[in-house]
Amino acid sequence: MIPLRDDVPSRTVPFVNYALIALNGLFFVMELGMGRQLDRFFYQAAVIPVLYTGPDRSLGPLEAIVTTFNPDLGGRVFLSMFLHGGWLHIAGNMLYLWIFGDNVEDRMGHFRYLVFYLLCGWSASYAHIWSAPDSRVPSIGASGAIAGVLGAYITLFPRARVVTLLPLGLFTQVVAVPAVFFLAFWFLQQFLAGALTVAAPTAQTGGVAWWAHIGGFAAGFVLVGVFSRRRPRGRDAGWPRPGSRD
Known about the structure:
- By secondary structure, the protein is mainly α.
- The protein is about 55% helix and about 10% strand.
- The protein has a single domain (about 1-205, about 210-235), classed as Rhomboid-like fold.
- The protein has helices at about 15-30, 40-45, 50-55, 75-80, 85-110, 110-130, 145-155, 180-200, 210-225, and strands spanning about 1-5, 160-170, 170-180.
- It is globular.
């Protein structure tokens, strides 16, 4: 399912959400200019679980790669949120952030939303580290933080409508799906894939940090109660006004 838009209007200009999208875009342009040095940069800047959990916190034979630029562990968590592995990776992430982030920012306020987003990204990174403590594979992407936004959205706007593109083989169909169903289905996919990596650690999962998605979503679902500052009002909150039809 590919989301196209939702039906909840934003009352304020979500300039923090716009800035996050722009910053991700700027980092991606920087990556495109690195050429063959990009893989080296990922080892230098991304979250690599063994650095956080290993007894000597080193990359072994790969240690030489990080000698020229080696941010501290906290810096890696922050940088990794703005790095992406390809066009599809960043396009998918920014689509979700564009559709769902503006309403969450509207409900939280600009500064609260920024702190919330970064905390969800932080939680997602450590969920991934917990799930794969011996991994020496760099983990990058905004999807963990964006998963937190989804966790907040499903709480704040459960009955908003998400206009969704459904690929059906050679045909496609556009349907309006309640947000609670769309996001619950999204989370179920992440959870089942994450459970597979625990049950069968050697299973092929496409290099996706599923537990980062799960951890980010859970963090957003919990933290929204702390960061949300406005009460739902009618359809703007994803609930029908009295007397209206759903």
